[in-house]
Design goal:
Three copies of one chain form a homotrimer. Chain A has one domain. Helix content of chain A is 68%, strand content 0%. Chain A has eight helices and no strands. At the A-B interface, α2 and α4 of A face α2, α6 and α7 of B.
Chain lengths: 225, 225, 225
């Protein structure tokens, strides 16, 4: 055990290494904050903040673990749940401070998206999944926390947003699987994939990047011609 | 086997004891009734009643079992599913009788909320979970049946309601975990926690109890001052 | 191994036999197409198409496997995921071709509904479930892909539709369980149940078949009489 005592909870996720654990932990906190900020938009009470924060923070990883047949990560390491509650409580008392809560949600969500995309892909690879499943797990881990947040919070699901969203998760997860296959040191692969996923989503937020969207073609009914 | 033959299905949940099994069973029936009443508001057919009733009745407990890595309770004991269908069919033919279906949904939901909060917490403790996870399982079991009902029924999720909701589940689950830790006889702990959870939610419904909700602060933009 | 090499992925689901595997596969493709068509209505990008297509195609079967405690089918056989992505990409470039996308969604959904109802029931029977659970698994497998599609796509859940929907899945699953109990050859039982489920839903779409729906009775308040 090379971990200091106050990080003892990380030992439950030791197989994934300290870096992955830290990435996972920061991603959980970032997503929990977005859930709590949605709760503030709905003017919920502090228990509602904690519930929506926790569901958003751990929802994507929970789905990943259930699909892979792994024990659910936060059952073995309740610290994840505790950090969601703490983050939500802090947001309850400070949500009025940021100039634009909407932009803060977007950027924290972007951080969580990139973090979960790489950690989801890595956890799948370690569990023995092939590259297709690993990429899918990265995308699922990254997107479903936000999807559950929006469905429970009565918002329009973020995957319907105009700008690149799931694509950024795909870029991060795919990059990690490719870099890992190239036998790059794991920390470098994690960092590179993380940077790519965040850069893609960040560009979508700040520059309005989007992929070509499906557009209805001109009608073929007589009255449309 | 101290159970009479016609309660033979309870043997599948024997480890949790007859009282827990009865509480669980009544909770499933109460939640199934709320699901069927939402189906009546949407003017669904009888199969839709059964589907929405079953999903609401067993949804929270299903999620609890999946998260804990336990076999899903109603797969081993299909009587839970049967009671959901029976309750839903009864509601299909009698939903016009209550003076206010809306209030009936609220009160049955309150009963299910309290029942599932304690049984969810106990099932988690028996499965070896610590106190934090046990409380979380109580809250999840109690709230997610109603959340799934509202999402599938196209209603606004009940956790967004103005009055205390998840907080009542938290009170019941927390009370049970504390009382159990104090080595109270299990039946007394169950009864006490159940009464507390129901009283808190009941007060919220009839007296309009609520926790302080997040409120937008005065703006800090020049034009708001 | 009687399967040709290019169908090698089917070996992962070999216990269910080639016919069940083909039915399952066609059902996944049909549902994936409905998910992608909903994505086209929302004017999503190609990654959004793939995400919504995949969730719809594999969502119902995923829930079935989790409930039964089986390994999730597409983790072991990623070809299911690949076909969802391929179908979604094809739809992205061709969704303008059908005269009425809405009717195409309805009919593909009907095919998926019937296919998943029988394959869901069979997979449950093979896993050792009794008849009640097998029928429930058929209904769940058949309906939840569409439910998840509608929730994520921001559409009104299809189970709230005026015409027979869940009832068709129930008819197909029930027919298969009964025919299997009568010791009919499995292929005949599959084909018969499939035809029944599709015929019931098809009649609902083209003839407007519906079960009697719950209707509010005349009021009993003085001012209503």
């Amino acid at each position: 055990m090379s971990l200091s005592p106050d990080l003892g909870f990380l030992s439950a996720i030791e197989p994934f290494g300290a870096l992955t654990a830290i990435i996972d932990f920061v991603g959980v906190a970032a997503f929990a904050a977005t859930g709590a900020l949605v709760a503030s938009r709905k003017e919920m009470d502090i228990v509602g903040f904690a519930l929506l924060g926790a569901v958003t923070g751990i929802g994507g990883g929970t789905l990943r673990d259930l699909l892979l047949g792994l024990p659910v990560f936060w059952i073995a390491a309740p610290a994840y749940l505790v950090i969601c509650v703490v983050v939500s409580a802090v947001i309850f008392f400070t949500a009025h401070l940021p100039y634009s809560r909407y932009r803060l949600i977007l950027w924290l969500d972007a951080a969580g998206l990139a973090l979960f995309a790489v950690v989801g892909a890595e956890k799948a690879l370690i569990a023995g999944a092939g590259p297709v499943i690993a990429v899918a797990m990265g995308v699922i881990t990254a997107t479903f926390g936000g999807v559950i947040r929006d469905v429970l919070g009565g918002e329009s699901p973020v995957i319907l947003s105009r700008e690149i969203y799931a694509t950024a998760a795909l870029a991060g997860a795919l990059a990690f699987v490719v870099l890992a296959a190239l036998d790059l040191p794991r920390d470098a692969a994690l960092a590179g994939a993380l940077a790519l996923g965040f850069a893609v989503r960040g560009a979508a937020i700040s520059l309005g990047w989007s992929l070509p969207r499906y557009r209805p073609r001109p009608g073929r009914r007589p009255e449309d011609v």
